[in-house]
Amino acid sequence: MPHALEAMSITKSYMTSDGPMTVLRNMSFHAAKDEFVAFVGPSGCGKSTLFNIITGLLGPDAGSIVVDGRETTGMVSAKIGYVLQKDLLFPWRTVVDNIILGLEVKGASKREARAKASRLLHDYKMSGYENKLPGELSGGMRQRVALMRTMITDPQIIMIDESYKALDYPLKIELEGELLDHVKGSGKTVIFITHDIEEAVTLADRVYVMKAHPGEIVEEIRIDLGTESHSIPERRMSPRFNEYYDRIWQRIGAPRTVNA
Amino acid sequence: MTMRHSSRAKIGPPKTLPLTENPLARRYLLVALQIGITVALLAAWEIGARTGLVNRFLFASPSMVWDVLVKRSVSGELFEDIWTTSAETLTGYAVGAIGGSAIGLGLWYSRFLSDLSAPFIAAIGSIPVLAIAPMTIIWFGTGMMAKVMIVAFSCVVVSLTTSYKGAMRTDGDLINLMRSFGASRSAIFFKLVVPASMPWVISGLKLNVGFALVGAIVGEYISSQAGVGHMILLGSSNFSMNIVLAGVAVVMVMMLVFNFLVGLIEKSILSWERK
Ligand SMILES: Nc1ncnc2c1ncn2[C@@H]1O[C@H](COP(=O)(O)OP(=O)(O)O)[C@@H](O)[C@H]1O
Ligand SMILES: [Mg+2]
């Protein structure tokens, strides 16, 4: 069976005033069905660029992206859904109409899409918020709506770019737990991109550690916290948590201390 | 300084705020003062005119202006003029402001076309209405059409540029989100760019209320058989300051009403902005 996602030798540079700058160099990686994969690296190491290349919003200079056995390099694939750091809700659309955006664009019947969205709102314990506007919601609720908007299109791969960065700690923990509840075991692949080592270790089955200038994978770490719990605090209590944390920290944190 | 002051105020015994700091009282006070000042000015003007301190030939008087308004209301003349100017203003506004907004938004589609047209738009925008008004009379005659064109011309560039700016400021991440759903360019335009630009479009529409009314009156100054501008022009050519000032008062009221109407449109279109 092919991997849900496979990337081969991705290289990307941006043109700057000082000539071309290589942002990503020769990155190869993969993600399996039902797997949570994290990319961890310092700010500016090219995570968002990588994200855009995987989603097909940006083409790489070299290399290829294969989704479910089909090459999709530089193309937007319906199998990939994404959630960004900013919730990016349309402020003029109600919660329900924000959730159905993707279905609406794909030409689905609005009535059916709305019914589906209502069921989703129920699952996410947000019934009754159907006709509210984003401006009336808390940050956590907006982030939930953004996740629902992605989930409703039933993507096989969910890409998450530092979605929980701007949220306060307890809310972040809560949303991370919800992500596990809703997605883990559904057969979907989650690829999330973060500079937060803690988040990577608690959520991921596998972590790719990146360095910057140019962005490259320096280590691949399989994470096994030895628990099936979806509770974030419980996962952090795992005796192996610190070991993984330290190992990634050595890779990311250590060089920076030398530079400083 | 202010910090220390307010923290002390919190600790100490409650003091009654001075009138100018209590928000509600302040508002009433302001309105009362504004009305008072207006009445006082009108009264001074009236008394001055009656006692001869103010030259009635040059400045008329409030009661003389009021008489003009009453007489022309009774004869229906005033409403005819208001109707003529309103029709010119609203039609020209619809063509220029709404048409300009549509073109401005539409330019989002083609970066090439918008770059190509940029200097021409700037050139058209730099022409004062007054400069082309006489020409429109030659082209479109002395009737309503010429005024509509002048009004449209006064509005079109402002609306075009503000709405284009709004369209181009659409958040790139939102566009990417739409692309990730496989949205076509026209789906991105109608579902995202147009609604996201509405605050800009509306700000252009609001700016243009003034330009539109000025355009209609300028058009009437150049050639007209009716309209508030016509009324002002005739008044001044007969040295009837009371008629001129009555016309000016009518223009002020029309401006208020048009602004109010556009405000209503803004409220209904941008209701989401206040949430
Ligand atoms: N469109 C662009 N043009 C030029 N340089 C860019 C562009 N986008 C990002 N960069 C640069 O590429 C590097 C990686 O950016 P990014 O992918 O956003 O990293 P991260 O998400 O890890 O912070 C940064 O140094 C950034 O300044
Ligand atoms: Mg980033």
Helix/strand order of chain A: EEEHEEEHHHHEHEHEEHH
As a whole number of angstroms, the C-alpha radius of gyration of chain A is: 19 Å
Bound molecules: adenosine-5'-diphosphate, magnesium ion
Strand content of chain A: 25-35%
- The number of helical segments of chain B is 12
Main β-sheet description of chain B? none
Would you kindly provide a written description of the structure presented here, covering whatever features stand out?
The termini of chain A are far apart. Chain A has helices at residues 47-55, 95-99, 101-105, 110-123, 139-151, 169-183, 197-203, 232-237, 241-259; strands spanning 5-16, 19-31, 36-40, 62-67, 70-71, 80-83, 157-161, 189-194, 206-211, 216-222. Residues 256-260 of chain A have low confidence and may be disordered. The radius of gyration of chain A is 19 Å and the shape is globular. Chain A is built from nine helices and ten strands. Chain B contains twelve helices and no strands. Chain B starts with a helix and ends in a 6-residue tail after the last helix. In chain B, 82% of the residues lie in helices and 0% in strands. Mean pLDDT of chain B is 90; it is low at 1-9. Classes of the chains: A alpha/beta (260), B mainly alpha (275). The A-B interface holds A 52, 55-57, 76, 78, 80-82, 84, 86, 88, 90-92, 101-102, 104-106, 133-136, 153 and B 171, 173-174, 176-183, 187, 191-192, 195-196, 198, 272-275. Bound molecules: adenosine-5'-diphosphate and magnesium ion. Magnesium ion binds next to helix 1 of chain A.
